Amino acid sequence: MSTSYAIGDRCFEADGKYLALELPDSSPLLGDPAALRQRLSDDGFLFIRGFHDPDAVLAARRDMLHRLAERGMLDPNQPESDGVVAADKRAGATSSVRGNDYLKTPSVRDVLYGPRTMKFFDELFGQAATHFNFEWLRAAPPGAGSPIHCDMVYMGRGSQRLLTLWTPFGHITPEMGPLAVCLNSHRWDDVIATYGRDDVDRNRTRGVFSDDPAELVDRFGGRWATTTFEPGDAVVLCMYNLHASLKNQSDRFRISCDTRYQPASEPLDDRWGGDPPRGHEVLWSDGVELESVAQSRVRWGI
Ligand SMILES: O=C(O)CCC(=O)C(=O)O
Ligand SMILES: [Fe+2]
C-alpha cells in the first residue's frame, strides 16, 4: 500500500497538512432534512454512508464490469469483479465522461434516479426534485485523475440550488483515486466572485481553477480530504465546493458517477435537460482553443 497520494502532479502524505484520509460523516443526519441543509451550508458537502442500497450499487457495478469486459477493457486473467484494467488499455487511457453511454445500464439509473435517491432530494429541497439527463460516468483507469474545479462553471445556467451527487460504484480506496474535496473552499468569496462566475462554454476554459493543489492549502487555507468509500456511500456537493480526484494508483478501474439534482420548479440549464442533452457547446467541440489556467488567473485577478 502506498502512503503517498497525488492530485495532478503533486504528491501528498496521508493525514498531513495537505491531505486528510477522513471525511466528516453526515450519515447520522439522514432523515433530518433541516440538519442536512445546515450541514451542507456549513461544510459545502455531505458525506453519507448507506445513502444508496449497497446491493443495488453492487448489482450496477457487476453490469458495468461485464460491459467493460465485453469491450476487452478488463484483464481476462483476473476476476471480472475486481475490475483490473487490461494491460494494453492502461497506457494513455482517459477517464472521459463522454462515450460512456454503454455503461449506463438500467441498474445504474435505478441507483441514481430511483425512489430512494429522489426522496432524499425531495426532502432536502423541501419540494419535488428533478435531475439532469446526463450522467458523468467515470471508469477512471490507472494514472487518471480529475482536475481542481467547482461544478458551477459547467452547469450554472439554471437553478442556483443545484446539487451534485457523487456515487462510488464499489469499494474505492484512496489508492484507486476517489473524489477529494477541498475543505472550506465553498467559503472563498474571492474565488466564487471571479472563477465561480465563469461558464466554460462562454469563457472558453476547461473549468479548472488551479493546477496546483498545494496552492489551495498554502495560500487559501483549505485542506484536501477523502476516504475509503464503500458500496452505498455517496457525497453531496454544493456548486462552489472545489474538488478533484486523487490519481488512480491501482491497477483497477475506479468506477463512479456524478449526477445533478435541483427543485423541479426551477429552470434547468438547457445544456443538460434535453433528451438527449445538448452538452457543452464549446468545451466538447473539436478544435476549439481554450484559455489556459494561467490566462484565466490573470483575468480573475486572483
Ligand atoms: O469523480 C471524479 O473524478 C470527479 C467528480 C466530480 O467532479 C464531481 O462529482 O463533480
Ligand atoms: Fe465536479
TrEMBL record:
Keywords: Oxidoreductase. Its EC number is 1.14.11.35. It is an enzyme of class 1 (oxidoreductase). It comes from the Bacteria. Residues 73-92 are annotated as: Disordered. InterPro entries: Phytyl_CoA_dOase-like. One of its GO terms (molecular function) is 2-oxoglutarate-dependent dioxygenase activity. Pfam families: PhyH (PF05721). This is 1-deoxypentalenic acid 11-beta-hydroxylase. The lineage of its organism: Bacteria, Pseudomonadati, Planctomycetota, Planctomycetia, Pirellulales.
